[in-house]
Each structure stands twice: as structure tokens, then as C-alpha cells.
Amino acid sequence: MQSYTHLSDSASDSEQPYSPPPRWTPLHQDPRLALLPPHARPSGEMKGETERWKMVVIRLLPVVATVAWLLTLLLLLFSWLYLDHRRLYKWYLGGMPYISDVGAVHKSFFRWGCSVTAIFYAASLGAERWLRARRVLSEATEERWLWIAVGVLDVLVGTLGAAALVLLSIYDAFDHPKLHSLFMSSFIIAVGVSGTLQTVEVEHLMHEHPDRKDLLDATYLKWIFLSIAVLCGGGFWIMYYICDGDATKGGECWRVTTASAVLEWAACFMCDAYLATLILDVWPAYRHTPLPHRVWANAQGIQGIHVLQPDGGYMSWPLGAQVEREEWEKEREAVWMEKGGSMRRSAVVA
Fold it and tell me: Is 6 within 8 Å of 312 (Cβ atoms)?
């Protein structure tokens, strides 16, 4: 374990007002490191740090995907209710139109909505995987390569689902019914598999990092929304094929087909709720902001964290000290508020 000691940056013993470095200044850019011997100076940016503009962009990716899909669904529903005055596009498919039917009539914003959602959904999955690879987000340390493979597979399958979403909007239900059904099935299966892989990974991280309450919340929400979406999607397909092409108004199949359309809408809204859980994965600032403590990692994985002591020195804490870290941060804030005007801050590797 590395050790850190103190080094005075001034020959004078007189106290100087404490002035913390800029919030976004990485440790390796600290001018006081010039006082260290060359072999003791860190080179390059330490893992776990992300520039502020990157953090903002990454946070916006799942937000845009969630809002785009929600607006697409609401615009389709509004168009059918108020622009088309609830007319039935196909008399034999019940009293509620399928999303694909409304999208085939209003092709323009349906294609735009699906395309924007697909692009930002795939980008959100890739950004989360990149953050975990850089150890900014919590990463698995047990069977690490297995969970890296699971994460990469999650991104690949999710990207295929995003591509299927774009294609099903291009090949609509009226002009290309067979291709539309194929891409719709591919989208549902791909998003379901990708969501399951991601949920299993987050649940594993929750058990490996029990102090991370955000992982606990994300795990429960992912399981809830994904389960409801899968149940609604399965009910939609079953009811659709039970009475396909035989939904005489007022009959039993009319009600069954109408219920299948309602379940399709419900499944799509639950998919949007699942997309919103991606925001929880990348949103918390303390996982992306270069705080006074940095991740201590090497080629063998995460070893611990470097923490800044109230008296200005640095100390290395091994993995598993997260609970103590939280207590230390509370003590640090109290000390800094009390003695912030006279504290001096410097560090050196022993």
C-alpha cells in the first residue's frame, strides 16, 4: 500500500489562508507535484476522473432517449385521439389501434422519434460501459472478465435492438407487414435480453458494493419495470395471435384484440420507464466528479482509494474501506468548516 506524507510548499512557518485548488483540477496537474522527485510523480490522468463536459454529455444521453420515446408515444396517442378522431385504421383489429398502425399513418415523427430514441439508447449503453471500464462507475472485482463480457454483450445486443427500432419505423405495418413484424420481434427480444443482462450485472454490483444505495434502487426499479414490460409484451403477442383477423365488433375477439393493443401501449410505456433507470446508472455526480479522493487502481484492478486528510496529506485506503470513507468525509467537512481559514494543503509520496 502506498503511503503519503506532508511536504511544506513554503520555507516560511507563517500560516497562510487556506485556498483549495479548483474543483475540476486533477491531482496530476497540482503544481506542488514539482517538489517531488521525478520517479515519484504520477503520470497522466488517474483513473476514475472524467472531464466536466464529458460528464454533462453522458448524463444527457439517457435523458434524451427517455424523453424522445415518451414524446413519441404521447404524440402518437394524441394524433389518434384528436387528429384522427379515434378512427379505426383496420376494422378487424379491435377498438384500440396498435402503435404500429398509428405510426404507419403518421410516419414522419414516428421515424424521427424512433431514430432519436435508438441513437441515444445505444449511446447510453456504450457510455455506461466506458465509465465502468475507466472505473468511474462501480465495477466488478470478482470474476472481473466474466462481468466485462456480460457488459459488452449487453451493449451489442442493445445496439441491435436500437437498429431494429429504426428499421421497424421505416418498414411500416401497412406497406411492409412481414418485415415490420420481424423487426418488432427483434426489437422486443433484443431489449429484453439487453435489459436482463444489465439488470443482472447491476444486481451483482449491488452485492459487491453493499454501501452503494443507488445500485440498490436501480436494481429494484430495473427488475420491476422490465418484468412488467415483458409480461405486457407477452400478453400482447398471445392475444394478438388468438383472434388475428377475426375481430367482429362487439364479439369476444373484439375485446381480446382491443386488450392486446392496450397491452402493447403499456409495454412501450414500461420500456420508457426502463430507459429512465439508465439515468440512475450515470447520474450521481460523486461517481464522476474528481473529488479530493481518487481511485487507486492498476493493471490488476481496483486496489483502493487515495483520500485527502483534513491536515492536507494524502492517505491510501485499500478496497473495502467505503464505509469508513463516508464517515471520514463527514468528519472532513466538519473540520474544513471550522478551520478552513487556516488550514494548509500539501502532499508528497513517501
Answer: yes
Q: What is the DSSP letter of 49?
A: -
Alpha helices, H only, the chain: 52-78, 99-105, 107-133, 144-170, 177-208, 213-242, 252-282, 322-339
How far, CA to CA in Å, does 45 sit from each of 50, 312, 314?
Answer: 9, 21, 17
Cα–Cα distance measured from residue 229 to residue 248, given in angstroms and rounded to the nearest whole number: 28
Measured between alpha carbons, how far is 66 from 69 in angstroms, rounded to an integer?
5
Helix 144-170 / helix 177-208 crossing angle, nearest 10 deg: 150
Residues 44-70: tens digit of each pLDDT: 444 434 466 777 788 899 999 999 999
Q: How far is CA 239 from the centre of its chain?
A: 33
- Given a cut of 70, is residue 184 above it in pLDDT? yes
Alpha carbons 266 and 54: distance in angstroms, whole number: 34
Query: Rounded to an integer, what distance in angstroms lies between the CA atom of residue 350 and that of residue 339?
Result: 26
- The answer to whether 223 and 273 are in contact (CB under 8 A) is no
pLDDT band at 294 (very low <50, low <70, confident <90, very high): low
Closest by CA position to 7, among listed 29, 31, 24? 31
Return the closest-CA partner of residue 221 out of 205, 202, 208: 202
Cell triple for 228 = 412488467
What letter does residue 296 receive in the DSSP assignment? Answer: E
Give the Cα separation of 257 and 243 in Å (integer): 7
pLDDT of residue 314: 58
Please give the grid coordinates belonging to residue 63. 435523458
**CA–CA distance, 282 with 287 (Å, rounded to integer):** 8
> What does the buried/exposed string (b/e) look like for 269-278 if buried means 16 or more CB atoms within 10 Å of the residue's CB?
bbbbbbbbbb
Question: How far apart (Å, rounded) are the C-alpha atoms in residues 116 and 103?
Answer: 15
pTM equals 0.65
Contact 123, 163 (CB under 8 A): no
305 three-state secondary structure = strand
Give the integer Cα–Cα distance in Å for 349 and 251.
80
**Residues contacting 1, CB < 8 A, separation 6+:** 304, 316, 318
